[in-house]
Design goal:
single chain, alpha+beta, Uridine Diphospho-n-acetylenolpyruvylglucosamine Reductase, domain 3, Enolase-like, domain 1, 12 helices, 26% strand
Length: 287
């Protein structure tokens, strides 16, 4: 099947892209194209125009700022996977990027494109939710920053408006004695997640949990924070029993689908299993 007819634009700046989007309400931004073009070929998406921002090289970077690491929206998954900066500060993004599709997809697909596509079974939205990412969105009205908990609004939906462009993702540095991890459960390497689990945690003396964020993917229309499990662990020692007890309540609020990859009940049990494993992986990185 081939896509429906569409207009094509290749702006030379982000401001030009924003102007084109403002004038074409049904236009879509094309970044890496690994998700959007596939949907268009299946005619599950039929934008009136594509605004190709892939040539805007000033949106491809990983930079250490004073308070955060900034990642340009056009940074490829491969660049994320091999970033020494992210390996040092946010290894869960390395985990997530390394599990996306195959090498060809990682060479072209972008962190911003994956975020804006907002597939609930994709790896980056879940990892970025666990990392408490902030999303910088630009339009003709200026710039605004949206936290991950407000950025992903529903199934394939985000806070980015039709005349806006995601320009940067910011990850504020974690305190000392912090660690993170992401694990995906899938049928085959590179497949979308049956369950994805991201964890960021900070400990105090005696392995006491000072703070923790647990994000779940493929368990509903958008990434879910496992707040009951988080609340159970804060202020407690991160030992096997407390981690296991927290994992038992991690699926509260989850509503995973049943499909050929696994039933709803199976996914509910896997949430417990992979929450426990991901917390332990993050803990191992504190050593």
């Amino acid at each position: 099947m081939t896509p429906k007819k569409f207009d094509y634009y290749s702006p030379s700046s982000i401001n030009e892209a924003i102007e084109i989007l403002h004038e074409n309400e049904e236009a879509k931004v094309l970044a890496g194209g690994q998700s959007l073009l596939a949907l268009m070929k299946l005619r599950l998406a039929a934008p009136s125009a594509l605004v190709d921002i892939s040539k805007l090289k000033d949106l491809s970077y990983i930079r250490e700022d004073k308070e955060y690491v900034g990642i340009g929206a056009l940074t490829t998954h491969d660049a994320v996977e091999h970033s020494e900066v992210l390996k040092k500060h946010f290894p869960l993004l390395i985990d997530a990027a390394s599990k996306i599709g195959d090498q060809q997809i990682r060479n072209v697909g972008t962190i911003g494109g994956s975020s804006c596509h907002a597939d609930p079974a994709a790896d980056m939205p879940t990892a970025l939710t666990a990392a408490n990412a902030r999303f910088v969105i630009r339009s003709g009205r200026g710039e605004r920053t949206v936290p991950a908990t407000e950025f992903f609004t529903g199934l394939f939906e985000t806070a980015v408006g039709h005349d806006e462009v995601l320009s940067e993702i910011r990850l504020h540095y974690m305190p000392p004695r912090s660690a993170s991890a992401y694990i995906k459960h899938s049928r085959r390497e590179g497949d979308f997640a049956i369950v994805g689990t991201g964890v960021s945690l900070t400990i105090e003396d005696g392995n006491v949990c000072k703070d923790i964020r647990i994000a779940l993917g493929a368990v509903g229309p958008k990434p879910l924070r496992a707040t009951p499990a988080e609340a159970h662990l804060r202020g407690k020692t991160l030992d096997d029993k407390n981690i296991a007890d927290a994992a038992e309540v991690a699926n509260q609020g989850a509503d995973p689908p049943s499909d050929l990859h696994g039933s709803r009940n199976y996914r509910m049990e896997m949430i417990k299993v992979f929450t426990r494993r991901t917390i332990k992986l993050a803990m191992s990185r504190l050593m």
